[in-house]
Putative serine protease HtrA (Clavibacter michiganensis subsp. michiganensis), 420 residues
Amino acid sequence: MARPATDAFGRPYAVDAAGNPVPPKRMHRGLRTGLIAGASALALLLSFGSGTAVGFMADLGRSSSQAGSTQIQDPGSFTPGQGFGRGTTTLPGQGSGSGSGSGSGTQSGTGRGTSVTSPEATTAQKAGVVTIDSALTYENAAGAGTGIILSSDGTILTNNHVVSGATSIRVTVESTGKAYVGKVVGTDATNDVAVLKLEDASGLTPAKLDTDGVQVGEAVTGVGNAGGTGTLTAATGQVTALGQTITTQSEGTAAGETLTDLIQTDAAIVSGDSGGPLVDAEGEVVGIDTAASSGSAQIAGFAIPIDKAVSIAKQIESGVESGTVKIGYPAFLGVLLADGAGTVAGAPVQGVVDGSGAAKAGLAQGDVVTSVDGKAVASASKLSAAISAHKPGESVELGWTTAAGAEKTGTVTLTEGPVS
């Protein structure tokens, strides 16, 4: 039976009874649910394959499969053109019943009893919009979301949860079909905003951003990569409320996060739409689609106001970190960690990422990391905190006890890890 472990960021990773990492299958990611002022359930809208939630990150669903090797392959490069098939998308409708009927409470939608087919986005609606395919190599998974073009040279605005955990990112400009490698410039996990930069991009058409604000009752359309198919769809509705505060939460867990000052809409925003634009009748972006109701008979989608998101994006582009804004990629040791107590105080190693600094230093499954730079680490969480204080490219002096009981030390050069 698989039991939870954590990676060097302190996030859960499944291992079997023998301690071997269990890579999840590619799947339709389970939606994160939550509460609006103690009422309706919500879901963040990143698309993944179906399966039960056992896995790499505490707030995102994963599914377990057969036991894998203790050596996890380095992600390497992500080749544009790889990845996801394209096709039609069926979106949740407004059928009766939130607790019964086909599609009710499923991972693929917002819990409506029946479904309708959302139309493909028009050429005008596709302008300035990208689809985002993320490879999560350390967990043998892949995800899909949406983004908004901010500049002609490839600055992309999206949700943090669209790229969280990604080892490589492919971004497709939907107006041209051209794919690019995307790199994370920075993130604000608290406000669920991320900025990407496309490699070797030029001549892109930025999205038109609203400057007037939006009003309750105003007609809006959510454009996004619904279901992760790679085909943009358009869900129409109207603004039903402003300044909303919601708490999101993973399926089957009590963990959650609070998002504030959101636009609420009755447009059928669904999984895969995350990071996509909510546009007004003039085709101007008024918000970023971020969350939606789940298991409720009433549709409720939520978007971050575009002025707030752009303000955060400008801070990220300036390279100035804050309490919530992080620039670039975090330092990565390259080990999978178990939280369980062992015979030696420290952070038990359940697996090592092939090609990582830890692998090059000689760490192996069954070892226990006991110190970083001469300071004792008593647990996996303490090791995670010590590593997070460093930048990629920096070196740390690591102490560990091998499975055979030998005491070792070594210098480990930290590499770039996926953003959290």
User: Anything to note?
Assistant: Helices lie at 123-126, 160-163, 306-318, 357-361, 380-388.
